[in-house]
Design a protein that fits this description.
heterodimer, A: alpha+beta, Gyrase A, domain 2, Alpha-Beta Plaits, 6-stranded antiparallel sheet, globular, B: 977 residues, alpha+beta, Ubiquitin-like (UB roll), FAD/NAD(P)-binding domain, 7 domains, 7-stranded mixed sheet, 23 helices, 50 strands, 22% helix, Sarcosine oxidase subunit gamma (chain A), TrmE/GcvT-like (chain A), oxidoreductase (chain B)
Chain lengths: 182, 977
C-alpha cells in the first residue's frame, strides 16, 4: 500500500518571477489546462470545437476566444486549447495531447513591452502589425517560442518549461536595457 | 580658439575631460576633436607606419588621423575617432601609437627611414629566413606600426542586439534625408530615419545655407521637431547603417552610452540593429577629398568642409590665419564663413586659372600648394603658380579636392559605382541595391536645392512603390548654383604626398605599385595597403585610383574602384556577439530535479542543452570514482533513482499510428499489445542507424516513443518528414511531450519495493512484467509506469506531470536511501549500461549500421521501413566490417580509454594495420577492472582475440581481449526477476 504521500506542484518559473522593471511587468501566468489539438480533418474538428467550446479553429498566426477559453495557432495543423479541459468529442477528429506542464507561460506587459521583445524576437511585434489576437511561433533569443498579443501592451509568451531560467534571464536583461534608457 | 557667438554647442554646460593626462574644457555638444581644437591642440595622433605627427583631417566618421583610446580599465576602447566621440564629464582620452609620448615619439625614427619603408618593403625585405617572419619580423613590425590596443581583460559592459521593421528606411539625416523622411512620414509610411551623428541635420549644421529663407540648421530642427511628434516615425541618432544584406535587411550600430559620463550599468554600450525595410533611401551625403601634395599631412591641414564644421557647428576657429586650397567653387564658402566670423584668411589658392572670387579675399588663381612646414603643427605652406614658388605663413590649411558621394552601401551587394565626369566623382548606380533609391549628395547632387528635391523625389518613388498616396509637400527653396570643379588629385613634385593618411600610403607608393606591375586597382590596394585601414580608404580611394590611372595610362572609369564591403564604419565584435557572452551562448535546459540535484552537490554536466547530474557526492568521497562506484552499487544491490526526463518523448496518435511506427522502426510495432513496451531501432534513409529507444503502446491508437537525449530533435524532425512527405494521407499526429512529463528511472533489486510504496494499487511480476506499461496513480496524481531497464536490473520508469517532478524526485531519493540506495548520475548510468552492452550515440555515431551493432536481425523481413533497402547495400553487411564488441584489458596497463585504436597484436600502430576503435569505457565495479565497447573488423567472430590497444593522444599502449559486448547477465534474468 502506498504511504500517505502528497506531491507539491511547482510552476516552471518558481522562484524566478514576478519582475517589475522600468515600465514593464513580467509575471508567470496560470493558463489552466493546455491541450494541443492536431486535427486529422480540420473541417470536422472545427465544427466539434465550435460545438464544444464555442471556439473557431484559429487561422495561422491568429488566436480565437477570450480569457476563459482560447485557441492559439501553434504551428502547422495545430492549435493550443488554452483554459478548459478538452471535450471528449474532440478526440474523434484530432490528436489531443496534454501540454499543461510542458510550457513556461509568462505575460510581459507595459509601455516598453514591444521594445523589450524587439531585443529578442526577429518578428515585427509592433502594435500596427501585430494586433490583439495575433500570434507567432518564432524565436525569442535562442528559444523556440509562442508569442501572442493579448492586450494593447501585453504579450503572452510560451517557451519549453525546461528553458524558463533562460527565458527570464533574457527578458530581464532586455527589460533592464529599456528601463535604463528612460 | 572658440569664437564668441558661433556654434551649436551648449555654452551653459561646460564639460571637462582629459587628453593624455591633461585637463581640457569644452561644452556639451563638442566632440573630443572640436574641444581640443578649441583649446588650441592640433597634434592628436601619430601615423600608423612613420609615426608622423597628425591632427584632424575631417570632422566626421571618416577621420583617419585622430584615433584615440577612450576610457580606462577593462572596457577601454581603442581606435575611437576623436571626431565622433562626444565629450562628457571625466572622459579620458589617450593618444595611440606613440612612445613614450605623443609629443616626443621615439618611433618617429621610422619617418627618417622612410626611403626604405615604401610600398612592398616588407614583402621584399623580410623574406629570409622563412621562419623569421612569424617569430621575429612580424611581431617587431606590428609593435612599431599600429593602432590602439584592447585592455586584454574581459569587457564587462553590456551590448545588445535588436530588430526593427519599417516601410521606409532613410539613411542619413542631412537635407536629402530629412526631406525624404518628411514626405514619407506625412504620407503615413512607417519611417526609420537613421543618422550616425549625435545631432541630425548633416551639412545643414556645418554650413550657413538657407532653406526657404530660414537658417538651414533651424529648418532641420523644425523638421525634426515635427518628425519626433509622429507615431509612424522612429528617429535613430548615433546609429550608423553599416551594411546592406539580402531581402531589405540592414545592419546598423547604435552607440547607446559612449557619450554618457556615468551610464546606468544596465544600459548597453552599443546596440546592433537588424532593420528590415520594404524600401530604403540612401542619403548618406558625400565625403570631401584631400589633395595630395608634399607634406600634406601636418596637423593644421584639414578638409575645407571640416573647417566649416568646426567653425559653424562648434564655434571653433581651427587656426588664427587660415589658407584655403581648392579646385572647386564650393570650397570658397569656407573663406566667406571664416571672414564673416572674423577669422583671418591669408589667401584662397585655387588650382583653376579661371576661378572667380566669391567675396572680398585674396584669390590666387592657378595656384597649387606644393609643400608645407611645421613639424608638430603647420606654420607655412609653399605654393606654385606659373610665376614660380612662394611661401605663405599660415597655421591652418583648408583643402578641397572636391567631394565623393558616399556610395559605400550601394556596393555591398556587388554593385559598382559609375564615373560622373561632370563632378569628377563616382556615383552609385540607382539599381545597385533592390528597392533602394539614392538621394542627395550621395547620388551626386551637390547643391542644397538638388539635395532637397532628390530627397523628396526619392520618397515619392518609394511611396508609390509601396502603393501609398503621397502627401502634397512643396520642396523648399534653396541655393542651386552648379558645382564647378576641375580635377586635381596630386600636385607634381618630390617628397611624400599622402593619399591614405591612415595607412601612410603616398603617391609614390601607388606609382611604385604600377611600376612593379601591380596595375589592377585590387593589386595596387594590397601591395600598398591603401584603403586597408579602419577608415577603409574613405578619404583616399578615389584619389589613389586616379593616381594609378594616370600612372598606367588608363582612364579613371577603366581603372575602377576596389570593393566596398560591410561594415561602413568599424563595428565592435562585442556588439555583433551581443547576448552570447558566457552562458548566453546557448540556452540552458533544466530538468525538474535540477534544484534538488544542485542542492545535493551534484556537478552538472551538459547533455546537448540539458544539464544533468554527473554524480552525487557523499561525505568522505574525495573523487568522482568513489561516488560513481557507490551509485552503481545502489542499482546493482538495492535501488537507484535517476532523472531520465531529458530523453525525447513523442506522443503518437491516430488510426495509422502503428503504421507510422512500422515505417519508422526496423522492427514491428503494429503487433505490440496495449500495455506493453518494445525496444526499437530506427535507420536513416541511407541505411545507417539514426536512433534507438523504447515505444510504449498506451492505447489502440496511442503510442509514446522515447528517443535518446541527443537525437530527440532529429527524430521529431524525421517523423515530421515521414508524416508530411511520405504519408500525408495517414491519420497520425505527433507531438513532443518531453517537457510535459518528469520521468525517473527506479532501478535495482529493490525497485518494486520503492514503486509499491508510491502507487495506489501495488504491482507484482504478473501484473507488471518486464516491458509492461500503463497508467498508475501516485499521491492522487495520474502517472505512467513503464517496466524498462537501461541498467539491466529489475527497473521501472515512473512519469508524472512535470509540475510534480521536483517533489517526486525528492521523495524517490529519500525512499531509495532508506532502502540503502540513492540517486545516481550520468557516470553511474554509463557504467551500468556499458556493463550491459547497451549502446548509446557513442556507438550509433552515424557511421554504424544495424549489422555493425549486431542488430541486423531487427530489420523485419515482413515489412518495409525507412533505410531498409539502403541498409542491404553491398558493403553495409560485409562480415569484414567493424562490429560491436566488448573489450577487456589483458596487458600491463589496465586502463582503457575511449577513442583509442586497435591493431593486430604486436603489429605496428599505423593506419594500414587498424583493426578498430574504442567507443566507450568504464571501470566496472562488478568485475573490478576496466571494460570497454568498441568496433573491431569481423569482431562478432573474434571473441577471445587479443589486440594491441593504442591511445596516441594519452600515450597508452596495451593489450586487450575481444569479448561479447554484454558483460553482465547475458541471459537478462535480472531485468525479468
Amino acid at each position: 500500500m502506498a504511504d500517505a504521500l502528497t506531491l507539491t506542484a511547482t510552476t516552471p518559473c518558481y522562484g524566478l518571477l514576478p519582475k517589475s522593471i522600468g515600465t514593464c511587468d513580467l509575471i508567470e501566468t496560470n493558463l489552466g489546462r493546455l491541450t494541443s489539438i492536431a486535427p486529422y480533418k480540420q473541417s470536422a474538428l472545427s465544427e466539434a470545437l465550435k460545438d464544444a467550446h464555442r471556439l473557431a479553429f484559429p487561422a495561422p498566426n491568429r488566436m480565437t476566444g477570450n480569457d476563459g477559453a482560447r485557441a492559439i495557432w501553434f504551428g502547422r495543423d495545430m492549435a493550443l486549447l488554452v483554459g478548459p479541459t478538452p471535450d471528449a468529442a474532440l478526440a474523434e477528429h484530432a490528436a489531443l495531447t496534454d501540454q499543461t506542464d510542458a510550457w513556461a507561460c509568462v505575460t510581459l506587459s507595459g509601455e516598453d513591452a514591444a521594445a523589450v521583445l524587439a531585443r529578442l524576437v526577429p518578428v515585427d511585434l509592433s502594435a500596427a502589425k501585430f494586433k490583439r489576437g495575433h500570434t507567432a511561433r518564432t524565436q525569442l533569443g535562442h528559444l523556440n517560442a509562442s508569442i501572442t498579443r493579448t492586450e494593447a501592451d501585453s504579450y503572452l509568451i510560451l517557451v519549453f518549461r525546461s528553458m524558463a531560467t533562460t527565458l527570464v534571464h533574457d527578458l530581464v536583461t532586455a527589460m533592464e536595457s529599456l528601463a535604463a534608457r528612460r | 580658439m572658440r569664437i564668441a557667438g558661433k556654434g551649436r554647442i551648449d555654452r551653459s554646460a561646460p564639460v571637462s575631460f582629459r587628453f593624455d593626462g591633461m585637463q581640457y574644457k569644452g561644452f556639451a555638444g563638442d566632440t573630443v576633436a572640436s574641444a581640443l581644437l578649441a583649446s588650441g591642440v592640433r597634434l592628436m595622433g601619430r601615423s600608423f607606419k612613420y609615426h608622423r605627427p597628425r591632427g584632424v583631417l575631417t570632422a566626421g566618421s571618416e577621420e583617419p588621423n585622430a584615433l584615440m583610446t577612450i576610457g580606462v580599465g577593462a572596457a577601454r576602447e581603442p581606435n575611437v575617432r576623436a571626431t565622433v566621440q562626444e565629450i562628457y564629464e571625466g572622459l579620458e582620452a589617450r593618444a595611440q601609437n606613440a612612445f613614450p609620448s605623443l609629443d616626443f615619439d621615439l618611433l618617429a625614427i621610422n619617418d627618417l627611414a622612410s626611403p626604405f619603408l615604401s610600398a612592398g618593403f616588407y614583402y621584399k625585405t623580410f623574406m629570409w629566413p622563412r621562419a623569421f617572419w612569424e617569430r621575429l619580423y612580424e611581431p617587431a613590425i606590428r609593435r612599431a606600426a599600429g593602432l590602439g590596443a584592447l585592455s586584454g581583460e574581459a569587457d564587462q559592459d553590456r551590448y545588445e542586439k535588436a530588430f526593427a521593421f519599417c516601410d521606409l528606411l532613410v539613411i542619413g539625416a542631412g537635407p536629402a534625408g530629412l526631406m525624404a523622411a518628411l514626405v514619407a512620414a506625412r504620407s503615413g509610411a512607417d519611417v526609420i530615419l537613421a543618422d550616425e551623428d549625435a545631432q541630425m541635420g548633416g551639412r545643414l549644421l556645418s554650413d550657413t545655407e538657407t532653406v526657404d529663407g530660414q537658417d538651414g540648421a533651424d529648418w532641420a530642427a523644425s523638421v525634426l521637431e515635427e518628425l519626433k511628434g509622429m507615431e509612424n516615425v522612429r528617429l535613430m541618432s548615433r546609429t550608423t547603417v553599416t551594411g546592406v544584406y539580402d531581402q531589405g535587411t540592414f545592419g546598423a550600430l547604435e552607440r547607446v552610452s559612449h557619450h554618457i559620463a556615468r551610464p546606468d550599468g544596465r544600459l548597453p554600450r552599443e546596440t546592433f540593429w537588424r532593420i528590415v525595410a520594404k524600401r530604403s533611401i540612401l542619403a548618406a551625403g558625400a565625403l570631401e577629398r584631400p589633395v595630395a601634395f608634399q607634406n600634406n599631412d601636418r596637423p593644421g591641414i584639414m578638409t575645407a568642409g571640416a573647417v566649416r564644421s568646426y567653425l559653424n557647428r562648434w564655434g571653433v576657429a581651427p587656426g588664427k590665419s587660415v589658407t584655403l586650397f581648392a579646385n572647386n567653387d564650393d570650397a570658397h564658402r569656407t573663406a566667406l564663413d571664416l571672414i564673416a566670423a572674423g577669422v583671418h584668411v591669408t589667401a584662397v589658392l585655387d588650382s583653376r586659372t579661371d576661378a572667380q572670387a566669391q567675396g572680398d579675399y585674396r584669390l590666387i588663381r592657378g595656384a597649387q600648394v606644393c609643400n608645407s612646414t611645421g613639424r608638430k603643427g603647420l606654420d607655412a605652406i609653399t605654393y606654385r603658380t606659373t610665376s614660380g614658388e612662394d611661401k605663405l605663413s599660415t597655421d591652418c590649411l583648408a583643402m578641397s579636392g572636391g567631394w565623393n558621394p558616399t556610395v559605400h552601401l550601394t556596393c555591398h551587394m556587388n554593385g559598382r559605382p559609375e564615373w560622373d565626369e561632370s563632378i569628377a566623382s563616382f556615383v552609385p548606380r540607382q539599381d545597385a541595391i533592390p528597392d533602394m533609391t539614392v538621394a542627395g549628395a550621395a547620388s551626386g547632387r551637390f547643391t542644397l536645392h538638388g539635395c532637397l528635391t532628390s530627397g523628396a523625389d526619392a520618397a515619392r518613388a518609394a511611396l508609390s512603390a509601396l502603393g501609398m498616396t503621397v502627401a502634397d509637400i512643396a520642396v523648399p527653396q534653396a541655393d542651386d548654383t552648379p558645382y564647378a570643379i576641375t580635377p586635381l588629385w596630386a600636385v607634381a613634385g618630390k617628397g611624400r604626398a599622402w593619399l591614405d593618411f591612415q595607412n601612410d600610403v603616398t603617391v609614390k607608393d601607388v606609382k611604385q605599385a604600377a611600376t612593379e606591375n601591380f596595375r589592377s586597382v585590387e593589386h595596387m590596394k594590397r601591395y600598398t595597403t591603401q584603403g586597408m585601414a579602419t577608415d577603409q580608404g574613405k578619404n583616399s580611394n578615389v584619389a589613389a585610383l586616379a593616381v594609378l590611372a594616370d600612372a598606367t595610362g588608363r582612364g579613371i572609369p577603366e581603372t575602377g574602384t576596389t570593393t566596398f564591403r560591410p561594415p561602413y564604419t568599424p563595428v565592435t565584435l562585442a556588439a555583433l556577439g551581443a547576448g552570447s557572452r558566457g552562458k548566453g551562448f546557448a540556452p540552458e535546459r533544466h530538468t525538474t530535479s535540477h534544484a534538488a540535484s544542485v542542492a545535493m552537490g551534484a556537478p552538472m554536466i551538459e547533455a546537448g542543452l540539458w544539464y544533468r547530474p554527473s554524480y552525487f557526492p557523499r561525505k568522505g568521497e574525495t573523487n568522482w570514482r568513489q561516488s560513481c562506484d557507490r551509485e552503481v552499487g545502489h542499482v546493482r544491490n538495492a535501488v537507484g533513482v535517476c532523472d531520465v526526463s531529458t530523453l525525447g518523448k513523442i506522443d503518437i496518435q491516430g488510426a495509422d499510428a502503428a503504421k507510422l511506427l512500422d515505417f519508422a522502426y526496423t522492427n514491428m510495432f503494429s503487433t505490440l499489445k496495449v500495455g506493453r513496451v518494445r525496444y526499437g531501432l530506427m535507420l536513416r534513409e541511407d541505411g545507417h542507424v539514426m536512433d534507438d529507444g523504447t515505444t510504449a503502446r498506451l492505447g489502440e491508437t496511442h503510442f509514446v516513443m522515447t528517443t535518446t537525449t541527443a537525437a530527440a530533435g532529429q527524430v521529431m524532425r524525421h517523423l515530421e518528414f515521414l508524416t508530411q512527405a511520405h504519408h500525408p494521407e495517414w491519420d497520425v499526429r505527433i507531438m513532443s511531450v518531453t517537457e510535459q512529463w518528469a520521468q525517473f528511472a527506479i532501478a535495482g533489486p529493490k525497485s518494486r519495493d520503492l514503486v509499491n510504496g508510491l502507487v495506489e494499487t501495488p504491482i507484482d511480476n504478473d501484473t507488471w512484467p518486464f516491458m509492461a506499461c500503463g497508467p498508475v496513480r501516485v499521491a492522487g496524481i495520474d502517472a505512467r509506469l513503464f517496466r524498462i531497464s537501461f541498467s539491466g536490473e529489475h527497473a521501472y520508469e515512473l512519469a508524472v506531470p512535470a509540475r510534480y517532478g521536483d517533489a517526486l524526485f525528492r521523495v524517490l531519493v529519500k525512499r531509495a536511501e532508506a532502502l540503502e540506495g540513492g540517486a545516481y548520475g550520468m557516470e553511474a548510468l554509463n557504467v551500468l549500461r556499458i556493463e550491459k552492452g547497451h549502446i548509446t550515440h557513442s556507438e550509433i555515431h552515424g557511421r554504424t549500421t544495424a549489422f555493425d551493432v549486431g542488430m541486423d536481425r531487427m530489420i523485419s523481413a515482413k515489412k518495409d521501413c525507412i533505410g531498409k533497402t539502403m541498409a542491404a547495400r553491398e558493403g553495409l553487411v560485409d562480415d569484414d566490417r567493424a562490429q560491436l564488441v566488448g573489450l577487456k584489458p589483458v596487458g600491463a596497463i589496465k586502463k582503457l580509454t575511449a577513442g583509442a585504436h586497435l591493431y593486430a597484436d604486436a603489429s605496428e600502430a599505423v593506419p594500414a594495420n587498424d583493426q578498430g576503435y574504442v567507443t566507450s569505457v568504464a571501470f566496472s565495479p562488478a568485475f573490478g577492472h576496466y571494460i570497454g565497447l568498441g568496433f573491431v573488423r569481423g569482431g562478432a567472430e573474434r571473441h577471445g582475440d587479443r589486440l594491441r590497444f593504442v591511445d596516441a593522444l594519452r600515450g597508452i599502449d596495451t593489450v586487450v581481449e575481444v569479448c561479447s559486448p554484454v558483460f553482465l547477465d547475458p541471459e537478462g534474468g535480472r531485468a525479468r526477476g
